[in-house]
Amino acid sequence: xxxxxxxxxxxxxxxxxxxxxxxxxxxxxxxxxxxxx
Amino acid sequence: MNLEELKVLIDKNKELCSxxxxxxxxxxxKKKEYLKKELETFQNMEQDILAEIKKRYSKIEExxxxxxxxxxxxxxxxxxxxKEWNPYNTPYEKMHLDYYLYHLHRYYKDDLKSVNVCLYxxxxxxxxxGITLTKDDFIYHTSAMEYMDVVINHKEDEKIIQETFExxxxxxxxxxxxxxxxxxxxxxKNLKKIEKYYVDRFEKxxxxxxxxxxxxxxxxxxxKRKALEAVDEYTILQKFIKNRVNVTDLNQFNVxxxxxxxxxxxxxxxxxxxxxxxxxLEEYEYYMNYEFIVNDMRNRLSNKDQYKGKxxxxxxxxxxxxxxxxxxxxxxxxxxxxxxxxxxxxxxNIFKIQEIFSHLETFYAELDDIKYNExxxxxxxxxxxxxxxxxxxxxxxxxxxxILKENDxxxxxxxxTKKHQDLAYFMNSFSFTLLNNIHLLEEKNISEIISxxxxxxxxxxxxxxxxxNNLKNMKDDINDLIFADNxxxxxxxxxxxxxxxxxKKLKILE
Lengths: 37, 510
Prior knowledge:
The complex is a heterodimer of chains A (about 35) and B (about 500).
Chain A: H1 9-36
Chain B: H1 3-19, H2 25-61, H3 68-79, H4 91-94, H5 97-107, H6 112-128, H7 142-153, H8 158-171, H9 175-189, H10 191-206, H11 211-230, H12 233-241, H13 252-262, H14 270-289, H15 291-302, H16 310-337, H17 343-379, H18 386-394, H19 397-407, H20 413-429, H21 446-455, H22 468-487, H23 494-505
Helix pairs in contact in B: 2-23, 3-11, 5-6, 5-9, 7-8, 9-17, 14-21, 14-22, 16-17, 18-20, 19-20
């Protein structure tokens, strides 16, 4: 990611949390898919 | 990408993911590849953001305390030696005998370990002024002598000390009280030598520096240290970490609200006015908290002529009783050695010794108050200021304990000792502007003086604002305003501090 300098601290933490949640979702989706096979 | 854009992107990708077909092996393979790629992209993004968070956190975490601050603190400690020539201390307080003997009395029924710690502190206090006490100094009672022999000569052997105490206790249950009074006797017996020690020390120190110079240097060091701490990033952060300051109190909305509470129109020298006001309120708060003491001091000072010669008379009374006690002790010793000792006569002698000891215990207890009044007689003039009267109070632990207990019997000694330390520090480190200008014997409306003074500086301050229950809130608000102003002079801002504190709580960086 580029240009993070202008992102406020609060937003940066929230972005981190959003991405963390999304990555969890992706991992679970992958696991579900593997189970189906 | 900003937060909103990220949220939109994630929602869009989630939706896309939900519509991707999984019905055939090929579709599932394609979806799997998509998910893996997506995961890789966002894991990288997560790492990038984490690196940025760490970078910002480290930048704040790396703040170190200004190197001059600990040096000034050390200097401050050294300069506190001026307390030794506090005019309101007698050598009794300088040696901390007031504190140790009070606690020895208190620990009497508590635990032997604390009793012994007190005894060693007392021995050290005498040692420091050049008097090495031996068992032979404890002539009040043979049991006291026997116990001090073990305490002095078997310091490392707790078992022997414990066993000796237990065996002596049954013969002489008031052994600790006897020791307490015996120490008082030793103090007065050696008073001239002790006084000389402090005079010599004072002369030695002041041979190179004037006493006033040292005092001035002490106040300057405190002021310099406080000024540095006020704009020191590390010190500021510690205040937040230790919850002494709240971030919410410092946001712009609250700061503006607080400014309006004090000023209708903001003056250009707002900070200087607030600092003065805070200082006045601090003095005033101490005055309000200890108004009952100020009143007692006022009464004592009004009657100061009655105290003349009382101490000398009491000491003579004590000396006479002690002479009788020591004679009786000698007789008892001889009788103990004598083969033909008659039990009946023995009991009479022992009873007499106990009776005289009981008188001496009372006399010495009375002497504490007489000594304090004697100090008032010798040191306080009728035009003494309230701050000097409180300085005298803070210099006398026994008086402080007695009057606080009289005022509130529920207060325990730990609380009282803490209050005493706090008052003593305040009285020794604060530069007074209000209480040093009001005479103890004057009846003045101090809240009115403060209110009028600050109204002249355009501060909205009514007498009703100065009720004791409002003082803490008002002081907190002023402190926040001064703190917020100082913050603008640093490399920190409220947003960074908020972020730093949140990061400390969250486990992201672990």
